[in-house]
Specification:
With about 500 residues, this protein is α+β, with helices and mostly antiparallel strands. The chain has 3 domains: about 240 residues; about 90 residues, PAS domain (Beta-Lactamase), CATH 3.30.450; about 150 residues, Orthogonal Bundle (Helix Hairpins), CATH 1.10.287.130. Helices cover about 75% and strands about 10% of the residues. The C terminus is likely disordered.
Amino acid sequence: MVIANAEKAKRAAELVIANLEKEKRIDELIIADKEVTRQNEQKVKLAAELVIADVNKTKREAELVIANIEKAKLAAELVIAGKELSYQVCEKEKRAAELNIAEAEKSKREAELVIANIKKAKRAAELVIANVEKAKRSAELVIANKELIYQKSEKSKCAAELIIATVEKAKRAAELVIANIEKAKRAAEIIFTNKELMLAKEKEKLVLELIIVNKELNIQINERKLAEEDLKNSLAFSDILLKTIPFGMDIVDETGTILFQNDILKRITGENSIGKKCWDLYRDDKKQCNNCPLIEGINVGETNVYESQGVIGNSIYEISHTGMIYQGKKAMLEIFQEIAERKKKETELISAKEKAEESDRLKSAFLTNMSHEIRTPMNGIIGFTELLKEPNLSSDEQNDFINTIQISGARMLNTINNIVDISKIESGLTVVDINDSDINEKIEFTYKFFKPETEIKGLKFTFRNGLLSKDAIIKTDNEKQLNLRMMVQLNSDI
């Protein structure tokens, strides 16, 4: 029973360690996600620093981006520090569980020592019985010798009387024979006395041996009492351990009848659960599970774990089944752990991971196009500034070039604002400005903007507005969506 209880405690502690390992892996996954977020924020920071180097006019806006990124970085580091603290707590709980396993192993060894002492006492008792049998056989041998000597004496006496009756003349010879017989009798008595002395010595030796055996038995009895006391303490510890295990636990026989329940399950199902079928109490549909291990039979020492839905109020439980011997018969130890909340957290964690990965891909694509989006208006500003140096420009041309430079500067400012909006999107503070936007005007502006550059490169560049004015108006965030996509497409075509 002690070994079985120790094995129970060991398996329960192993289950606690397995759960801690699962929570540890979840925490590590969260830390990895936070690390990806931090790396992405580093990428945004590098992009912002590149913008500051190219355009000094946007220094204040870029510094604001860097400050926001630093705040996000500090927040991520605080989260990581918190997770590391949680991991250390989990490690402490794991070491406590290992100590419980060590205590269980100690109880097992002590129980084996008690069994060995009992076997030793049994062998000593068998030795005492064997010695008693030897003494009995020795006494029977002495009695047989006495009877043999007595028979010999009777024969001698009969012979002497016959000789006296038949031959008076041989009286002296007969007396001499009688004297010899007396001598033989005295010799026999001396031999008998010597044997008695030897038997007395053997008895003394046996008495001394019995005293030694009694002392050893007393020592073994005292050791047994100590072992029984240790066994009681171990049983008390096992009972305390069973009460402190934070899971529902029961024992069922091969037919599914409940033989034992801990306090946690009793609080859920009631005090009168012993003797009932486990599926009648736990399953919401009152039916035996299709994958119930009782169907295939109980294998002592084998443990299986599976998830079951629709248990104790339509919840999800992770149930471990371990074959064992209980009250001299095969039985199954069941440990119930509710995992509905854990499943929910795992689903949320996977969803958050997928969102983080998607965010990382979007940021990478954004950063890939960002330098191009900055160079394009910068080239327009530089190009039209060079054109303004040309002599013989009319005032309309100068105004047109200045207007293009202003639009390019506004576009560059919008690009910087888009970088800032990345932080706002992550924090949920972005604002969408939906207005009317004329696609024909956007195409015409794009044509004017790239026309000088295409002429320098000797390229043919034309455009055609195929939409009517009423069909060219759409509702959109003019700067954040449509303009960016159209410019990227036109730039790639050029």
